[in-house]
């Protein structure tokens, strides 16, 4: 497929943009431990977490890292944008690059 600007390329990239702060720092540490190939970009106001294929994080892991209760709705407050297909449940936030059938 092409557009006036050129060819459209398929990508397997997923990414999260988190508002900078203590919660984002904890999440980044977890992503770096879980995914050795993750790419992190730090900006003054936000942190980008980028990887091919998928990303998943447990808010229980974030809570342990922070040393206090933490939940998915609170994580979603610092999630300013994302690329990929998102799935949210009681404890995890996951991004996939592919559509998966039920």
Strand order of the largest sheet: 4-5-3-7
CATH architecture designation: Alpha-Beta Complex
| Structural domains: how many | 1
Biggest sheet features: 4 strands, antiparallel
Uncertain segments are none
Portion in strands: 35-45%
* Helical content (DSSP H or I, runs of 4+): 25-40%
Radius of gyration, whole Å: 15 Å
CATH level-4 homologous superfamily:
Monooxygenase component MmoB/DmpM
What is the average per-residue confidence, as pLDDT, rounded to a whole number?
Answer: 91
The computed structural class is alpha+beta
Shape: globular
Task: Give the end-to-end Cα distance, rounded to a whole number of Å.
Answer: 28 Å
Q: Looking at CATH, which topology would you report?
A: Phenol Hydroxylase P2 Protein
Written account of the structure:
This protein is of the alpha+beta class and about 100 residues long. The chain has a single domain, classed as Phenol Hydroxylase P2 Protein, CATH 3.90.56.10. The chain has helices spanning about 20-35, 60-65, 70-80, and strands at about 1-5, 5, 15-20, 40, 45-50, 55-60, 80-85, 85-90, 90-95. The strands form 3 sheets. It has a 4-stranded antiparallel beta sheet with strand order 4-5-3-7. The longest helix has 13 residues, at about 20-35. The two termini are about 30 Å apart.
